């Protein structure tokens, strides 16, 4: 059953409210795949008799969050808003501007079904629930166009080493091996993916938690910087800006692959591509299968209108309902936050992610391990290295090791 038929079944079972309400919902999902995923939420809410008023803000979280916060603080709140799962809304909660969802969460047993529990814990402040997590997003993937390889007489790579080895043949065929956008976060993310994929979880913990100087200066760490230099070379000719434009290069066969989070899968789905047939996904670059457990949550600014609040609670309940969770995440390319849903419709990539999640191969967020200043130093180094081919892998590693050595405790 695909997500459209799931929504049709849901619409038939939703009880219509006595008073229908228009609810403006802000978010920053604007690419083709993201728009298809938003439509799942909107259709489910509209089926309840209320109306989803779409408030998309282009430019990603960096552009959207300041606008969202400004509106709420300024007394012009939307009915609901997406935020990153984490601490984006802390000040708004402390100011008493967000709706308390505790009663609904307890009645529906959210604590018993959300997995991993850390996602739900991110919504709790002083024992009260203020948000609904809707998905699990992870960075640790590379996406490959199967036809690019098979049409040129090659096997589809199963890991990073094979991907690099196949690159010269792709170049000869006029195909860019690695698609990459031009935003700083694309580069920073790629370095993070390469490092944990080739280093592994033990290496990650030794560097980021223990700050073990011997591991930081090991041959393995140096090889990770060489791999990052290889990626830099493989991306030459990928002259696009946005991440979804880079994904489109892969979908259309102009590039072999892309290192990007699982949200890229939504673009493949929107293009009618089938996982395992048209494209291959390799978690952990096929080397060390791990995923991080970030994602998106929805918050509901307080409103004096009881009909608006009633509609807010309807939407909150729908967002985490079984049917909507499956339908939305199939469209988005992410994993559902519920551990009790029917995943018979899950595609090849979602199944891989769920298996990794079940095995407990979960990566902590680097922002939880380093101060903002140290994280900024890492990011600046990665971007400078990527944009300046004259910086060798050896120099990049040495500067990275120096940041760690001088990092704040």
Structure commentary:
The chain has 409 residues and is of the alpha/beta class. The protein has two domains: 3-137 and 293-338, Periplasmic binding protein-like II (D-Maltodextrin-Binding Protein, domain 2); 141-292 and 361-405, D-Maltodextrin-Binding Protein, domain 2 (3-Layer(aba) Sandwich). Helices cover 50% and strands 12% of the residues. It contains 19 helices and 13 strands. It has helices at residues 3-13, 32-47, 61-73, 90-94, 102-108, 110-113, 117-121, 146-150, 160-172, 184-208, 213-216, 219-234, 243-251, 264-270, 306-319, 322-332, 348-359, 372-387, 393-405, and strands spanning 22-27, 51-56, 80-84, 124-125, 128-129, 131-133, 141-145, 176-179, 255-259, 279-283, 291-292, 296-299, 362-363. Strands 2-1-3-12-6 form a five-stranded mixed β-sheet, with helices on both faces. Strands 8-9-7-10 form a four-stranded mixed β-sheet. Helix 1 (3-13) packs antiparallel against helix 16, helix 2 (32-47) packs across helix 14 (264-270) and helix 2 runs antiparallel to helix 16. It is globular, with a radius of gyration of 22 Å. The chain starts with a helix and ends with a helix. The relative contact order is 0.17. Residues 1-18 have low confidence and may be disordered.
């Amino acid at each position: 059953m695909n997500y459209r038929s799931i929504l049709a079944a849901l619409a038939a079972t939703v009880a219509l409210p006595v008073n229908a309400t228009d609810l403006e919902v802000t978010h920053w999902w604007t690419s083709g795949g993201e728009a298809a995923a938003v439509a799942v939420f909107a259709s489910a809410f509209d089926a309840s008799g209320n109306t989803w008023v779409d408030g998309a803000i282009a430019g990603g979280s960096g552009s959207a969050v300041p606008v969202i916060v400004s509106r709420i603080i300024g007394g012009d709140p939307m009915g609901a808003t997406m935020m990153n799962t984490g601490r984006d809304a802390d000040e708004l909660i402390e100011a008493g501007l967000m709706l308390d969802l505790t009663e609904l969460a307890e009645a529906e047993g959210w604590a018993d079904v959300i997995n991993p529990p850390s996602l739900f814990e991110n919504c709790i402040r002083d024992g009260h629930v203020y948000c609904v997590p809707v998905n699990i997003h992870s960075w640790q993937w590379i996406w490959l166009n199967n036809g690019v390889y098979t049409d040129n007489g090659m096997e589809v790579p199963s890991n990073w080493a094979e991907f690099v080895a196949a690159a010269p043949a792709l170049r000869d065929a006029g195909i860019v091996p690695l698609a990459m956008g031009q935003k700083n976060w694309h580069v920073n993310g790629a370095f993070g993916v390469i490092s944990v994929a080739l280093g592994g979880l033990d290496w990650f913990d030794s560097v980021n938690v223990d700050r073990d100087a011997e591991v930081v200066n090991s041959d393995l760490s140096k090889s990770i910087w060489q791999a990052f230099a290889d990626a830099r070379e493989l991306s030459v000719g990928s002259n696009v800006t946005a991440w979804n434009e880079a994904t489109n290069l892969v979908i259309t066969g102009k590039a072999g692959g892309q290192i990007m989070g699982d949200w890229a899968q939504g673009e493949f789905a929107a293009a009618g591509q089938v996982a395992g047939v048209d494209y291959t996904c390799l978690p952990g670059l096929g080397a060390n299968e791990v995923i991080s457990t970030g994602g998106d949550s929805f918050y509901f600014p307080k409103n004096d209108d009881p009909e608006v609040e009633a509609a807010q609670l309807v939407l909150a309940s729908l967002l985490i309902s079984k049917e909507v969770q499956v339908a939305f995440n199939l469209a988005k390319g992410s994993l559902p936050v519920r551990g009790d849903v029917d995943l018979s419709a899950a595609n090849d990539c979602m199944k891989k992610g769920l298996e990794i999640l079940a095995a407990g191969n979960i990566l902590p967020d680097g922002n939880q391990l380093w101060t903002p200043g140290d994280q900024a130093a890492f990011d600046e180094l990665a971007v400078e290295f990527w944009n300046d081919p004259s910086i060798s892998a050896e120099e990049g590693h040495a500067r990275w090791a120096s940041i760690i050595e001088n990092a704040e405790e």
